[in-house]
Design brief:
Elements (H helix, E strand, L loop, with lengths): L2 H7 L6 E3 L3 H6 L6 E2 L5 H11 L3 H24 L9 E3 L5 H13 L4 E2 L3 H18 L2 E6 L6 H10 L3 E3 L1 H5 L17 H13 L6 E5 L4 E2 L2 E2 L2 H9 L2 E4 L3 H11 L1 H5 L1 H8 L3 H4 L1 H12 L3 H24 L7 E3 L6 H14 L8
Parallel strand pairs: 1-2, 1-3, 3-4, 5-7, 5-10, 6-7, 10-11
Antiparallel strand pairs: 8-9
Helix pairs in contact: 1-6, 3-4, 4-5, 6-9, 7-17, 11-16, 13-15, 15-16
């Protein structure tokens, strides 16, 4: 099946099997794909190295290793499958690795679909589909200075039944110098793109989609250019909370820094080129002395707020006309009430731009 057809019909497949090595799979894969390596990491390197010197011997070795691995996959994963099972199988370019697995499964009696051109062709088709999907949605950007509760409002909107694209959740990052999530690695750029595309597939283009006012990068991954451009043209909502509520919200959401001041201080050091050594060292000392809320307050006033407001006015065309939202406080209950009010009052047009 062609990559374009698979993009359009992906949900029809009960099981999606990635026959590439573990490292290839970790870098990026189709949504919900299972990893059944025809050759594992070490075997792929071994066969590839031998191929450069003796292609025939490499093919013999590859066949032996592939046969053993496919046998294990069948014993461990296939014995309980009914005859009606119809998996989708792919490798890098739709060649020997996926072909070998598909051949054995077909000989058993299963109807197997191969992606023509493999993962590489699918990604190209996915990127083009992502560009088209972005243009068909009515985007509404939730703006607000750091700590105003944008993520909490997005979560409340989703719970209220609104359509939300949470880029920070997809990127595993809170999109700031201090935004890395402890113990959670970010996806690769390719996997981030795939996650965005997969999220968009479930959305209704006749209804609005709420998204946070991100910059071009969320941590180490970049938001697709077409999406950034669409967001920057879109209507804005400006979420406002009093300063002390924002400080309290950040102390709650960044509790890992409260519990590990040394990590927080190390992250502060990255601001030295922007704020100067003397200022940053003062913040570090205050944090170490238990005055974390004081540091957070000053970070907001002197660093985050000016940078954010300049960025919004420069990059988001409708920011100056943004509807101002003022929840009662930072609590989840207040955000839920605001989200319900937004959805009930239908303040947002449901016609795509």
């Amino acid at each position: 099946m062609s990559a374009n057809e698979v993009v359009a019909r992906l949900d029809e497949f009960e099981t999606i099997i990635d026959a590439r090595s573990e490292d290839e799979y970790a870098l990026d894969r189709l949504p919900h794909a299972l990893n059944w390596p025809t050759l594992n990491n070490a075997e792929r390197i071994e066969v590839g190295t031998l191929y450069k010197h003796n292609a025939f011997e490499a093919k013999k070795l590859g066949a032996a290793l592939a046969a053993r691995n496919i046998s294990q996959h069948i014993q461990q994963q296939v014995m309980d499958k009914p005859k009606s099972w119809q998996p989708l199988v792919y490798c890098w370019r739709g060649g020997k690795r996926s072909g070998s697995l598909a051949l054995v499964l077909s000989e058993i009696g299963f109807k197997v679909t191969l992606i023509e051109g493999g993962y590489k062709a699918f990604r190209q088709a996915m990127v083009q589909d992502l560009l088209q999907k972005v243009q068909h949605f009515s985007w509404h950007v939730v703006c607000g200075t750091t700590g105003s509760g944008k993520t909490r409002l997005l979560q409340a909107l989703a719970q209220a039944g609104a359509q939300v694209l949470d880029l920070e959740a997809l990127a595993h990052h809170r999109s700031s110098v201090l935004g890395a999530l402890p113990g959670i690695a970010q996806p690769s750029q390719k996997q981030f793109d795939m996650r965005i595309w997969n999220a968009l597939r479930s959305l209704d283009p006749t209804k609005p989609v709420f998204v946070e006012s991100e910059s071009k990068k969320v941590g180490n991954v970049a938001v697709p250019e077409a999406l950034i451009l669409a967001m920057r043209r879109a209507p804005c909502l400006n979420l406002e909370l009093p300063l002390e509520e924002r400080v309290g919200l950040l102390m709650e959401d960044y509790e890992h820094f409260v519990l590990n001041i040394d990590v927080f201080c190390n992250r502060l050091e990255t601001l030295t080129p922007l704020r100067g050594k003397e200022v940053v060292q003062r913040w570090v000392q205050q944090a170490q002395q238990g005055q974390l809320d004081t540091v957070v307050r000053e970070l907001l006033i002197s660093h985050y707020d000016p940078v954010y407001l300049q960025s919004m006015q420069r990059n988001f065309a409708q920011f100056d006309q943004a509807q101002v939202l003022t929840p009662q406080n930072r609590s989840q209950e207040a955000m839920a009430e605001l989200a319900q009010r937004l959805t009930n009052q239908k303040l947002i047009s449901e016609t795509p731009n």
